[in-house]
Automatic annotation (TrEMBL):
Subcellular location: Cell membrane
Keywords: Cell membrane, Membrane, Plasmid, Sugar transport, Transmembrane, Transmembrane helix, Transport
Boundaries of every ABC transmembrane type-1 domain copy: 79-295
The organism of origin for this protein: Thermus thermophilus (strain ATCC BAA-163 / DSM 7039 / HB27)
InterPro entries reported in the protein's UniProt record: ABC_transporter_permease, MetI-like, MetI-like_sf
Protein name: Putative transmembrane sugar transport protein
UniProt cross-references to PANTHER family, sorted A to Z: ABC TRANSPORTER PERMEASE PROTEIN, INNER MEMBRANE ABC TRANSPORTER PERMEASE PROTEIN YCJO
Entry's transmembrane regions: 12-38, 83-105, 117-138, 158-176, 223-246, 271-296
PROSITE patterns per the UniProt record, alphabetical: ABC_TM1
Topology in membrane: Multi-pass membrane protein
Keyword Transport applies: yes
Amino acid sequence: MRTFWRRYGLAYLFIAPAFLGMLLVHYGPMVQGIYMGFLDLRLQTLRLYLQAPFVGLENYREILLNPESTFRAGFLYAVRTTLLYTLVVNALNLSLGLLVAHLLNRPLFLRGLWRSLILLPWVVPSYVVGLLWGFMWLKEGVINHLLVDVLGLLPQKPHWLIGPLTFVAIVLPTVWRSWPFVMVTYLAALQTIPQELYEAAKVDGATPWQRFRFVTWPMLRPVTAVLLLYGLLGTMYSFNIVYMMFGHGAGYPGEWGDLLMTNLFRNTFGLWNFGLGAAASTLYMLLSLGLILFWYRVFREDLRAR
C-alpha cells in the first residue's frame, strides 16, 4: 500500500474532488430514486418522505403484472414507442450524416458555406424546435400547406398530431436537429483517412462501393460506435421536443407520440405518484443499461483497436 500510494497517490488526490462531486450530484440522487421505488410515496406522504410506507416490490408489480393498472398500459406503450423512435432516429441520423459528409468531403463550390448552413439546426435549442414544429404540424400549418396546396402530394390535409402520424411528427424534428452533428463528426473522420489507402485500392481494381466497404467503413467504425452511443442516450432520454410540441406537457401526445420520459414526467409530477414513477424510472435505467451493454459487445473490438 505504501508503494502504491507513493506511485499513484497524487493522481487519486486530483481525482477525489470530481469523485466526491459525482457522489453528491449523481450517485446519491440515483440511490435515493431507487429507494423511492419501494415506497408508497404520494402527495399526502411527500412531506413525510422518511416515514412513507414501505411497500417492497408493489410498485414494480403494478407496472409489470397488474393488467388493470392504467399506468402499466401507458408505460408499455411508451416503451414500444421509445424503442422504435430510438431505432428510426439513429438509423436516419447515421445514414443521412454519412451521406452528406461524403458529399461535403469532395471539392464543392462554396463548401464552407454549405457546411455552416447545414449546422444551423444543431444550434437551435430543442425547446424551440419542439415549439416551432408543433405549429408547423397543425392541420392548417405550413407543412400541410406545402404538401397539399403547393405540391399536391396529398389529397387532403392530415392531422399529424393525432393517431399513428404522431410518430412521424416527433421523429422528423429530432432528425432535423440532430443529424448535422453526425455529419460534421463523420466529415472530420473522413478527412483523417490516408489517401494512400484509396490509391492502393484503385490500383487493385476496387470499385467505389468496394473502396467504401473495405477502406472507408472499417476506418469509420470507431467513430460510428461513439456516435451511436450518444445517439442511443440522446433519443432514449428525449424529452424537450415532445414536451413542447404538445402543449408544454399539458397535452397527451397519444400512444404513438408518448415517449418514456414524457410518460414518466406526466405520471410522476402530474399525478403526484412519486413511488410508482421512481420504480418505472429504475426499470427504464435497467433497460438503458442493457442496450448500452449490447452496444459495447458489438463495438468492443473497434474501441480496443482505437
